[in-house]
Amino acid sequence: MDSFEVNKVAGGVLGTLLATMGLGLLAGWLYSPAEPGKPGYDLPLAAAETAGAGDSKTAAPAKPLPVLLASASVEKGASLAKACGACHNFEKGAAAKVGPPLWGVLGRPVGGVAGFGYSEAIKGKGGDWTLDKINAFITSPKGYAPGTKMTYAGEEDPQKRADILDYLHTLSDNPQPLPAVTDAAPADALPASTEPAKKG
Ligand code: HEC
């Protein structure tokens, strides 16, 4: 091999290298990856957070119950309560089904239907059913009364619950007035002792 031929080979090798480099540059320029605007993945955080909301304590509703009740509809409630009707009777004097009859449930002692086999979870509650308590119970029966026999998943929508409560409230010979919207702030959320002095 003379030097001329060595040069030819060297030239060939260099040429190939240059062409490869050039192609690499060209390819990089042609197929430059799109930079993500925000690195990372979008996790379904909001969904996960709301899913855990109804655990042992019901999450504070965005709107207080009296406000929701003020715009609730008895007709919508009656229709939504058909889901409850699978297990509950609503008519006066009606017997228990899977669950106790719900005529007059507001103001009735919790677990108060004589002869109905309530769970310990309900029997242990004490007190009377109020709109707030039923609201909490039907938000998540298992969250409100762990071990309850009421195998109802719960109604997530606060307005739908208010409609149901509005309807339940009519199931009485003597329906009590619904809470006034001006009393909306729950008393225990803002104890009198820490309430800032009102101006004016
Ligand atoms: C799958 C059947 C089922 C469905 C659906 C159901 N419940 Fe119940 N409910 C029960 C059972 C069973 C009990 C008794 C619970 C216990 O003893 O733990 C009960 C208890 C109750 C109580 C307590 C009554 C008392 O006398 O203390 C209320 C209030 C109530 N249910 C309201 C509702 C409402 C409102 C709905 C619809 C949004 C509903 N339930 C849907 C089965 C059901």
Automatic annotation (TrEMBL):
<dbReference type="Pfam" id="PF00034">
    <property type="entry name" value="Cytochrom_C"/>
</dbReference>
<keyword id="KW-0408">Iron</keyword>
<feature type="transmembrane region" description="Helical">
    <location>
        <begin position="12"/>
        <end position="31"/>
    </location>
</feature>
<keyword id="KW-1133">Transmembrane helix</keyword>
<dbReference type="InterPro" id="IPR009056">
    <property type="entry name" value="Cyt_c-like_dom"/>
</dbReference>
<protein>
    <submittedName>
        <fullName>Cytochrome c family protein</fullName>
    </submittedName>
</protein>
<feature type="domain" description="Cytochrome c">
    <location>
        <begin position="72"/>
        <end position="172"/>
    </location>
</feature>
<keyword id="KW-0812">Transmembrane</keyword>
<keyword id="KW-0813">Transport</keyword>
<dbReference type="GO" id="GO:0009055">
    <property type="term" value="F:electron transfer activity"/>
</dbReference>
<feature type="region of interest" description="Disordered">
    <location>
        <begin position="173"/>
        <end position="200"/>
    </location>
</feature>
<dbReference type="InterPro" id="IPR002327">
    <property type="entry name" value="Cyt_c_1A/1B"/>
</dbReference>
<keyword id="KW-0479">Metal-binding</keyword>
<keyword id="KW-0349">Heme</keyword>
<keyword id="KW-0249">Electron transport</keyword>
<dbReference type="GO" id="GO:0046872">
    <property type="term" value="F:metal ion binding"/>
</dbReference>
<dbReference type="GO" id="GO:0020037">
    <property type="term" value="F:heme binding"/>
</dbReference>
<dbReference type="InterPro" id="IPR036909">
    <property type="entry name" value="Cyt_c-like_dom_sf"/>
</dbReference>
<keyword id="KW-0472">Membrane</keyword>
